[in-house]
Design a protein that fits this description.
The chain has helices at about 30-40, 65-75, 105-120, 155-170, 185-195, 220-225, 260-265, 265-270, 275-290, 295-305, 320-325, 335-350; strands at about 5, 10-15, 15-20, 45-50, 85-90, 125-130, 175-180, 200-205, 230-235, 310-315. It has about 350 residues and is an alpha/beta fold. The strands form two sheets. Strands 3-4-5-6-7-8-9-10 form an eight-stranded parallel beta barrel, surrounded by six helices. One of its GO terms (molecular function) is oxidoreductase activity.
């Protein structure tokens, strides 16, 4: 697996990134370490986490994922230099008062969160430090519309960038990125960075999959022209695009109860739990089978082969899932199949947006 540059930075990452938000909740520490070992053995050099993980977020597991990764690194001398390590500072509290005091995300919050992540990860530097969701009000996590009346922003983007710049100057962060962003946010971060000599964002981590192609509604052009890379998350639509729920909905007795969307009500309340999302997934899964592919192969190849995606973040709970996701790297989609996918999107739109 070759590496490619992330945005205009000097980071070179594999086109598949290991997401870790299940570590510390669905995945215990020994199994998490085995998954990390296997991913590196198979050529993955990019690992993504966040200060608020594990997910679903709760006080007892906040920071647990970073700590698991830190202990993994601590037991493997030399491993740190082989991987690109990314983590995220949480945005304003979304019902998670245990992350920080207050409802905002100040410059001091950014610095304090970074220091905490460095300690838990047992590293001196974070390769890619991302803002998990915007400090300002934006339509995200299933909310469709921007509402100016809900704006409560207290820390301007320039102030956020200046805090990140201090971390870069101190050698604690190499490059910065965004997540769950909008075209306005990306343009403003880049504009202010270039105007004031502040760190330029290398990447944006947003949802992108067959059930949610909203990235293609302006974000793709914005990031292409600005030289900012997409890190695509939820490529399997929280399991809907694996086919495991084609016969039984997540809440049915016959559904696999170990899956996140079946196990956690908080997940079902978001975009992935919509009846339209499940119905759409079943259509795409059937399309995959009609073309001799598994649903997982189709969904991942759609991301793996898109010019829009720099690296696809895969989240797994077992070694078997990891191998299946990595094995899908060689899957090719014919022009006819891609046309069928586009025709289906025209009909279904983005049911998990």
């Amino acid at each position: 697996m070759n590496t490619l540059p992330l945005g205009r930075s000097d980071l070179r990452v594999t086109p598949i990134c290991l997401g870790t938000m299940t570590f510390g909740e669905q995945v215990n520490e020994p199994d998490a370490h085995a998954i990390l070992d296997r991913a590196v053995e198979r050529g993955v050099n990019f690992i993504d986490t966040a200060e608020m993980y594990a997910v679903p977020a709760r006080e007892a597991t906040c920071g647990a994922t970073e700590s698991i990764i830190g202990r993994w690194l601590g037991k493997r001398p030399g491993m740190r230099g082989r991987i690109v390590l990314a983590t995220k500072v949480a945005g304003p509290s979304r019902g998670m008062p245990w992350i920080r005091e207050g409802k905002g995300m100040t410059a001091a919050d950014i610095v304090a969160s970074c220091e905490g992540s460095l300690r838990r990860l047992q590293t001196d530097v974070i390769d890619l430090y991302q803002i998990h969701w915007p400090e300002r009000h934006v339509p995200a996590f299933g909310n469709l519309y921007y509402d100016p009346a809900k704006e409560v922003s207290a820390t301007p983007i320039q102030e956020q960038l200046e805090a990140l710049a201090g971390l870069v100057r101190a050698g604690k962060v190499r490059h910065v990125g965004l997540s769950n962003e909008t075209p306005y946010g990306v343009h403003e971060f880049v504009r202010l960075a270039e105007q004031h000599g502040l760190p330029r964002v290398a990447s944006v981590q947003n949802p992108y999959c067959l059930l949610n192609r909203s990235w293609e509604n302006a974000m793709d052009e914005s990031c292409h022209r600005l030289g900012v890379s997409l890190l695509a998350y939820s490529p399997l639509g929280f399991g809907l695009l694996t086919g495991k729920f084609d016969r039984h909905a997540p809440t049915d007795p016959g559904a696999p109860q170990d899956a996140r969307i079946a196990r956690y009500e908080s997940v079902r309340k978001q975009r992935w739990g919509r009846p339209e999302a499940l119905a759409g997934a079943r259509r795409y899964n059937q399309l995959a089978r009609e073309h001799g592919l598994t649903p997982t192969q189709l969904a991942l190849a759609f991301c793996y082969r898109s010019w829009r995606v720099a690296s696809t973040i895969i989240g797994v709970t077992t070694l078997a899932q990891l191998d299946e996701n990595l094995d899908a790297w060689g899957t090719q989609l014919s022009p006819e199949l891609l046309a069928a996918i586009d025709a289906m999107r025209w009909e279904l739109r983005d049911p998990a947006q």
